[in-house]
Known about the structure:
The chain is an alpha/beta fold. The protein has 13 helices and ten strands. The strands form two sheets. Strands 3, 4, 5, 6, 7, 8, 9 and 10 form an eight-stranded mixed sheet that branches. A two-stranded antiparallel sheet has the order 1-2. This is Putative transcriptional regulator.
Amino acid sequence: MKIKEAAERLGISQRAIRFYEKQGLLSPSRQQHNGYREFGEEDIWRLQTIVALREAGMPIADIRTALAEIDAKDEGRLMELLELQRSVMFAKWVEMKQMIETADRMIETLRQNRTLPIDDIYQLAESSRILREQRAWEDRWGFDELAGDHDRLVREDKTKYPDYDEALRLIVKRAAPVRGERGLDIGTGTGNLAGLCLEAGAAMAAVDQSKEMLKACRRKFPEVETRLGNFLALPYLDGRFDFVVSSFALRHLTGSQMLLAVQEMRRVLKPHGRICIADLMTIGESGACGSSETGLPLPALLDALETNGYITKLDQMGERLHVVLAVPVRPHRPG
């Protein structure tokens, strides 16, 4: 098959095929007498793969790596690349939704006032910029390196993880998953909480920023659907879950990020969806979070939940360990 036929079969340009060849993504054979490219079925399959990965937004360098893993039959590494790409795409999608909402507010202001003062434009743009910066996620804790010791640490480190197993059991009791429901565990670690929800009969999905934690989760609980992601850009579309749970993870966010996290949880929940969170929490005034030892400010969490239309029930398990259940005051529309 010549390059023109290959391009027509795949619905792409000959120029694109030459570009992929130049980038080292494929190497079709050439006819000896004239040097024309000759595309076999394996070349066509490879081109289809390249086109699909490009359509998913994957950069050329990552496609090159992905093809090498396919050639080496390393499915695990290929899965990591695809999950990373999916996580990046969802983060961009959430950011795009935010930009659309900013444009909608500008349109509404103009519709009502028949004018759009420069100060209003600036304030809306500034608010959008601040939100974008707040959504920036960075692993400052090195969870990939901690994954191998995670299950030991959560049971031995009584400072960071007091009453760990009891807290997880209370989350399941309060969230009350039932057979046929679909739940999401955010900051799942090695999947201990997701596993308990599985035992209760729910179908579970789990999100974590650490690929090594997710590997451990899949080994322990192969039935759990795992996704690379974080609180600020959950890698799921709107209205997918009956409940969201999380344990000893929300405290890693700043105060302003916590409000965004609650909004993201609400987005992926169904109209009657509930939230249950266990973590170290301080009773003092709301402020910056981010300490795995002191915990997050309880008033700020309760305020964020109530602002988003939830009523809350609080269990205090110790001096700082709390379990918060949040149920919607009335059914909300996802998104």
